[in-house]
Amino acid sequence: MTPLRVGLAGLGNVGAGVVKVLEQNAELIARRAGRAIVVTAVSARDRSRERGVDLSRCAWVDDAAELAARDDVDVVVELIGGSDGPALTLARRTLAAGKPLVTANKAMLAHHGLDLAGIAEAAGLALKYEAAVAGGIPIIKALSEGAAANSIARVYGLMNGTCNYILTRMDAEGLDFDDVLADAQAAGYAEADPSFDVDGIDTAHKLSILAALAFGSRIDFAGVACEGIRAIAAADFVQAAALGFRIKLVGLAEASGGQLFQRVHPALLPAEHPLATTSGALNAVVVEGDFAGRLFFQGRGAGEGPTASAVVADLIDIARGDIRQPFGMPVADLAQLPPADPAVRRGRYYLRLAVADRAGVLAEITAALRDHGVSIESLVQRGPAENGDAMVVMVTHDTSEAQVVASLAQMEASPAVTGKPVKMHILDF
Amino acid sequence: MTPLRVGLAGLGNVGAGVVKVLEQNAELIARRAGRAIVVTAVSARDRSRERGVDLSRCAWVDDAAELAARDDVDVVVELIGGSDGPALTLARRTLAAGKPLVTANKAMLAHHGLDLAGIAEAAGLALKYEAAVAGGIPIIKALSEGAAANSIARVYGLMNGTCNYILTRMDAEGLDFDDVLADAQAAGYAEADPSFDVDGIDTAHKLSILAALAFGSRIDFAGVACEGIRAIAAADFVQAAALGFRIKLVGLAEASGGQLFQRVHPALLPAEHPLATTSGALNAVVVEGDFAGRLFFQGRGAGEGPTASAVVADLIDIARGDIRQPFGMPVADLAQLPPADPAVRRGRYYLRLAVADRAGVLAEITAALRDHGVSIESLVQRGPAENGDAMVVMVTHDTSEAQVVASLAQMEASPAVTGKPVKMHILDF
Q1: Catalytic residue among A106, A206, A248, A423, which?
Q2: What tens digit of pLDDT does each residue of B127-159 get?
Q3: Among B29, B151, B285, B409, which has the minimal tally of Cβ within 10 Å of its Cβ?
Q4: Residues facing B126 on adjacent strands
Q5: How confident is the model at residue B386 (pLDDT cuts 50, 70, 90)?
Q6: Chain A: residue whose CA lies nearest to B144
């Protein structure tokens, strides 16, 4: 059998990792794929950078899009990144040239995935993206194939290693967000501009892809309500722990009543929940199927090895001739689910307020809750900090988000409440 | 597209579950499979039993093997069980008739899997068995496809819900094995003859299948060293917890130095290890890949819903025309790895002895350890129990199993040691 010849665009850590996997495990991969898989052509900005891999037998092209048309390329791996620009051009050209595409590009899929899937489907080509979500965890395959017999009601998880690293260190070391972020940037765990990660956008990209696979619905990235981790303070971890919870940035999608609920937000999870013990740069995803029950997947969410492992798994599938629809069914069959109104969603909430340490403040706060029908499961007031403010921490009973938001707005109008209140969801399922 | 017509042999809980999944999620499954999947013919011992599903449109056959030749059957699902007998006859007839086979039968695969895979491969037929290991967890797919780019060094997990249920209750309620087993039998969680489960044989069947997939090696069920959970006492959980460990029945396979190590045994896991918190009837599997790193999968390991979910996932793959070699590569390519000698394997051990409460006993025990070069990390003697015996609990430093066995043999020869010592491995990776 002739080898599968790969054109590789993007030679950062993951690109170099793909070359390493294909070299180091060449014999094993050939047995599993039924044929050899070899990189024949590459494209990257800097030819001279030392990458720790031998690229001497590969052709180099300056414009990645040229990989699509090359005679010595059977399949293109896109690791350029970015939702549009060169990555999208290469993706379109590859499919237009009648070649399958492997990509790790969640931003491109979140924005153009349906479009690209439609093109791939019409041409009978594979478009595979195991590496786009949760690194080395084969969650795309697990959802679209392993759990395919199930109607899935909910999928949620920790899908951003940078956020999980920051939150884990804040928790373990009692540090505030800004300090850990600076450390993480210095150590290379966070980007100079960290907003894609810490504001939840990266998680939202991934969540929108998982939701489409789980529910058989159209990707709706614009419908993801997105809140990052900048507002969380060291004090929140202490209070959450005292209540038996850990704080994580959770991407959560649910389909019910013909509506799609998608949200990225910091949330409190019971300390014994498997997501609560998913620490550092690990990722994890929970899938709830109507027959399989709760499935839990955990592994390294990023980095050279895990991501390259996922890319090569896709290449092995392609080498074997496995062509599935990119989203598990024809694009035309994907349901258009309108977004659920988050305001009507019910749950328990964690609230933290900084308040002036004087008589009558608690009365104001509890009146604001009463006025909007929010009942309180527990309330703790902690004595004044150095700046003279006291801290009030509350856990509500089941209530709608709209009620909580209205209560908080009323509290914020009071001069006794200093600073922005912190509100987090408690996910106790 | 014409429907995929299923002949279903065995209508216990799982068989009825398969009918339910295909009915309840028919529309979704058809979208994912690209065609409808319908049960057209069934076989079971008792036609009259109420199963909660409508079988009125299915043909009934008395001899399951007849399903293979029927014109209205495209694929056979074997849920009869047992390594030989009617299950094996049906499997052979199905493949001989040129039809794909789906089975949940780990015993049959452990004993005849390579033989059946060879037949399927020669005929270009699918032989799929996602339901044979770890119920609803798509671990077969994860290992053979999701992690296919990796050289896998180790795979281990909790694969028997009955044992995990018993151990979890012993731990939580301080009960001894016999009491929980009797309860579990009364509640239907354990068989009247529980030996397949509690002696580790069921786990060994499953482990031998996972090892073949993980390492690209031939199934070697006979090479699994197998020890069950009957010797564990309530006291062991107390001592293990004090040392920071939980006790689980672990199936563990490693490939190194061209040898295959396969073992089922009760073992101590650090309390923070994800397997340690896998409780009750849950199953979980850890896969260690050279690039993906540690992957962890957890879910319901048995029962109607999860197992049926796995069977139907296989049917969807078959409906889509996904034909892979049953063990991820041609049978002829599977390596014949000789079994590793467990005696030379190094690790830490937990040892518990009942000893007479008199002077000189500790000297005898420590001399036995010294004589065989076993060094001790910690040793605790607990005061005499009601019967007058004292308990000695030890954790060794890294040592070979042969050394531990020799020390224990020397101790057992002493009249001061009453009863059989308990020895368990500490798995701290």
Answers
A1: A206
A2: 999 999 999 999 999 999 999 999 999 999 999
A3: B409
A4: none
A5: confident
A6: A32
User: Encoding tokens for residue B14?
Assistant: 């799982």
The answer to whether A27 contacts chain B (CB < 8 Å) is no
Q: Is the CB of B150 less than 8 angstroms away from the CB of A25? A: yes
Partner-chain contact B150 A294, CB within 8 Å? no
From residue B105, alpha-carbon distances to A351, B159, B225 in Å are 51, 14, 21
For A4-136+322-331, CATH number? 3.40.50.720
The residue written with tokens 């199927």 in the block is A289
Given CA atoms B318, B320, B323, B329 in this order, what sign does their dihedral have?
A: negative
- Asked whether residue A46 carries a pLDDT value surpassing 90, the answer given is no
B202-261 residue pLDDT tens: 999 999 999 999 999 999 999 999 999 999 999 999 999 999 999 999 999 999 999 999
User: Residue A267 in contact with residue A126, Cβ under 8 Å?
Assistant: no
Q: Among A31, A8, A32, which Cα is nearest to A18's?
A: A8
Query: Residue A75 and residue B149: Cα distance in Å, rounded?
Result: 17
Looking at beta carbons, which residues of chain B come within 8 Å of A29? 148-149
Interface list for B 223-242 with A (CB within 8 A): none
In angstroms, rounded to a whole number, what is the distance separating the alpha carbons of residues A121 and B153?
A: 37
Instruction: Say if residues A157 and A275 touch (Cβ distance below 8 Å).
Output: yes
User: Does 3.30.360.10 match the CATH number of domain B160-299?
Assistant: yes
B128 is a catalytic site residue: no
Q: Label each residue of chain B as H, E or C.
A: CCCEEEEEECCCHHHHHHHHHHHHCHHHHHHHHCCCEEEEEEECCCCCCCCCCCCCCCEECCCHHHHHHCCCCCEEEECCCCCCHHHHHHHHHHHHCCCCEEECCHHHHHHHHHHHHHHHHHHCCCEECHHHCCCCCCHHHHHHHHCCCCCEEEEEEECCHHHHHHHHHHHHHCCCHHHHHHHHHHCCCCCCCCHHHHCCHHHHHHHHHHHHHHHCECCCHHHCEECCCCCCCHHHHHHHHHCCEEEEEEEEEEEECCEEEEEEEEEEEECCCCCCCCCCCEEEEEEEECCCEEEEEEEECCCHHHHHHHHHHHHHHHHCCCCCCCCCCCHHHCECCCECCHHHCEEEEEEEEEEECCCCHHHHHHHHHHHCCCCEEEEEEECCCCCCEEEEEEEECCEEHHHHHHHHHHHHCCCCEEEEEEEEEECCC
Q: Which residues of A touch B137 (CB under 8 A)?
A: 295
- pLDDT at residue number A128: 98
Domain locations along chain A = 4-136+322-331, 159-300, 343-426
Query: Could you identify the residue written with the tokens 């260190």?
Result: A169
Chain-centroid distance, C-alpha A36: 32
CATH for the B4-136+322-329 domain, from 3.20.20.140, 3.80.10.10, 3.40.50.720, 3.40.50.2000: 3.40.50.720
CATH topology of domain A343-426: Alpha-Beta Plaits (3.30.70)
User: In CATH, which of 3.30.420.40, 3.20.20.30, 3.90.1150.10, 3.30.360.10 is domain A159-300?
Assistant: 3.30.360.10
What angle is formed at CA A391 by the lines to CA A385 and CA A392, rounded to 5 degrees?
Answer: 165
- Min Cα distance A346 → chain B (Å) is 27
